[in-house]
Design a protein that fits this description.
By secondary structure, this protein is mainly α. It is 59% helix and 0% strand. The protein is globular, with a radius of gyration of 15 Å.
């Protein structure tokens, strides 16, 4: 094992493995990633929590665009963490936060 690999935190190694698998398994990888980040935002209490470390960086800006496109710019479609814990995980019909977003709005906006 090289020193660079050994120095990589365990959570980074786990994320690399999960994301690599998702690229192969998910037809809509971007949608899956937005869903996962939205669920993390729900656990943390807001989408802004994801970029709090460097809110002005270009990386944070892109994360912010992706997540807020899913949960809304004011987190208006961010489900509470308790609801996510009770609900089934993403399924083949689109699942995830996109399902909650559609249920919470009745003007026809959203996915499937």
């Amino acid at each position: 094992m090289t020193s660079a690999v050994a120095a990589t935190p365990a959570h980074t190694r786990a994320a690399l493995e999960a994301i690599t698998q998702a690229v192969d398994a998910e037809h809509d990888f971007g949608g899956w990633l937005a869903d996962v980040l939205g669920r993390v935002a729900a656990r943390k209490g807001s989408s802004d929590a994801l970029t709090a470390g460097r809110p002005g960086s270009w990386e944070a800006s892109l994360v912010d665009q992706l997540v807020k496109g899913t949960v809304g710019y004011d987190d208006e479609y961010l489900p509470d963490a308790a609801m996510l814990a009770r609900s089934p995980s993403r399924d083949d019909r689109g699942g995830g936060l996109r399902r909650y977003r559609v249920r919470r709005r009745d003007d026809g906006w959203g996915q499937r």
